Amino acid sequence: MTTQHVQIREVALRDGLQIEAPIPLSAKLELLAAVAATGVREVEATAFVSPTKVPSMADAAELAAHLHDYPDIEFSALVASPNGARRAVAAGLRSIEYVVAADDTFSKANVGRTSAEATNQIDEIVAIAHDGPTGVPITVEVVIATAWDSPFEGPPRRSGCSTSPRPHASAAPTGCRSPTPSAPPPRAA
Length: 189
Known about the structure:
The protein is 26% helix and 16% strand. The two termini are 28 Å apart. It is globular, with a radius of gyration of 17 Å. By secondary structure, the protein is an alpha/beta fold. It has 6 helices and 6 strands; from the N terminus they run E-H-E-H-E-H-E-H-H-H-E-E. The protein has a single domain, classed as Alpha-Beta Barrel (TIM Barrel), CATH 3.20.20.70. Helix 1 links the parallel strand 1 (9-10) and strand 2.
């Protein structure tokens, strides 16, 4: 008999709030408590990104200071640059997610650089994570945005992860996932 396993990562604190007007940290902490009460084991808590471009994430370090109140939850944070990775590591995160878009138009709109430029920063982000102040390895997960479809360019001309960055040899464990909700992955004929 095969055991099936479903892993759920709650993302409301980051993805659900990032494009909204900033809300007080106290409201985010109430949402965090409600999420924790559901029993979920993984939570993407925040994003360490430019506070001028994403004001709702300006309090990422302050929110991260409260994550230790929930020791049974594995928290992660999204980063969009080496500076974001430094801030996340300094805030004590043990897992960071770095987004690389499969198409340049989305990448430029999202993080201000091409997919190739974003891919070229993977090694630096991995080095930042592995050289963190705690001496505890930090998980780096590379997230492929627009892997199946792009709101700007449509389906990619090349297939999924063939356009994606390669995991850095020292980044153990690493991963690849596509958060793009606009289209399902291609099906084999």
